Amino acid sequence: MTGRLFDGLARRSILWLVALAMAALTLIGLAGMSTSVLVAETVQGSASAINVAGSLRRLTHRMASLVVADVLEEKVATERVLASVREFEESLVHPALLRVIERTPDSVFAATYRGAEAAWRLSVKPRVDAILTEGPPPSREGVAALLTEVDAFVEQLNTLVAVLEFDTEERIGDLRQILALAIGLTLFVVVLALVLLQRRVYRPLNALLLAANRIAAGDLSAQVSHTGRNELGQLGTAFNTMTGELSKLYRDLESRVEAKTA
What we know:
This protein has 262 residues and is mostly helical. The protein has helices at residues 2-12, 14-72, 79-92, 95-103, 108-133, 140-216, 231-261. It has 2 domains: 2-191, Four Helix Bundle (Hemerythrin (Met), subunit A), CATH 1.20.120; 200-261, Helicase, Ruva Protein, domain 3 (Orthogonal Bundle).
């Protein structure tokens, strides 16, 4: 259908054909670049979220190791344990993670994040608080239970990171498809425009040139077949009219010369 549209336009106006092809290429380029920028921004946000989600695993292991160290040293829960808890909770509500959830609140990542947040709030954090409130030193049983909770929690964080990575890879794949589509459409429009220009511009111009050469050689019967409503068609019609008038004028002159010399 696009080919018929371009061909029909070429029959009416060469200039409009060129203008439409340029407009189509411009729109394809703008649409491709705009969509690519939007996808790239979301990918960049996802990359930041992956870094933060990965840091949650590190902070969880660090918090657990500090608690174990206090048990081994038979200390009361130290300030460094409290600081590690605060740092983890700040990272859990990091803007990079919240932006991803705001962008896709019904996604798998959002559901996984809510599950991890609930596990921290209902399971891991109460276990840490219980250890912090125990008399010195914290019991080994409580620490063992905490380590079990931490192992399960870290698995949830691993899933969180994996979901983010998968989502990012999907968006990168979408970006590739958008760019491939834009390139394909661009090539299609360029090839179509070249074909039509060859049919509607090069061939008529070449026919006009050959006819002009025939007239220059004295053949006033030269005519062109390309006539129509577009610019070259109108030129061809005018050319045929001109050659017809010249041929008629030449025949009249010949008749007058023959009449005078008879």
